[in-house]
Amino acid sequence: MAGYVCTIAGGKGGVGKTTTAVNVGVALQEMGHDVVVVDADLGMANLGAMLGVEHGTSVHDILASDAAVSDALADAPGGLTVIPGEQSLDAFADADPARLRKVIRTLRNAYDAVLIDTGAGLSHEVAVPLGLADGVLLVTTPDEVAVGDTVKTAQLADRIDDGGEVLGAVLNRVTRHTDVPAIADELGHHLLAVVPDDLEATSREPLVLNAPDSRAAQAFQGLTDHLDEVFFMGADPDDLDTVVEEEWFVGDDEADAAEAEEAVEADDADEDDESGGVFGLFN
Length: 283
Prior knowledge:
Helices cover 41% and strands 16% of the residues. The chain has helices at residues 17-30, 47-51, 59-63, 69-72, 89-94, 100-108, 124-132, 144-159, 180-187, 207-210, 215-233, 254-269, and strands at 4-9, 35-40, 74-75, 81-83, 113-118, 135-140, 165-174, 191-196. α1 (17-30) crosses α11. It is globular and about 50 Å long.
């Protein structure tokens, strides 16, 4: 049986696409699935560097017809397999995104799940992975530009013939002041998970291995539990609850806790204001 291909996309760079791919990939691997993550951000590849993976062959070599898929497979933390990219302009110039189709076809026959980490924008380089997916996972931060660009990415995914359906969205780097319900409405797709802006989590990825008790790692683990149901059990993502815990957004000191409580009380008291930051999800 062919593996499930999930493209992780978002219109803007730096929103956490690679972080999401890595943490979901490792969490799926720990659940017993055989997973490979492909760095298809051909212009700004950073998967290998994020995981500290040493590699001699990259996805760019494959897309330049200079190497086979098997040559570029590299071991990563948590038993994960990755195909890293390169950051040189020469490698970018020689790589043909169209050849990614053959790469993904080969990988889906060898792995339970193939996660494709994409670049930013609406280029051909991004459109190809969208068209190869069984499902597309959107990732954005609350930043207004990032949300708007992610909406455009979703529209592009919907217009690609034979492309994967948009499974839903992940809202990354959320604080208790973020108006999550308003952003979810703007995205127009089901919000699968809210990932808190967790400054206490280690900067060493993957968080699910290096800081499993952190709030962000808990969010990624919950997201992975949902995706496991979608990928392998046929669950409808729209039927799944948003992964979010109110306690993630309550500060550690008394002042922050009091402020958070006041925010909840104010939201409950104001019947005319439908937004309430992240706490609106709990009302």
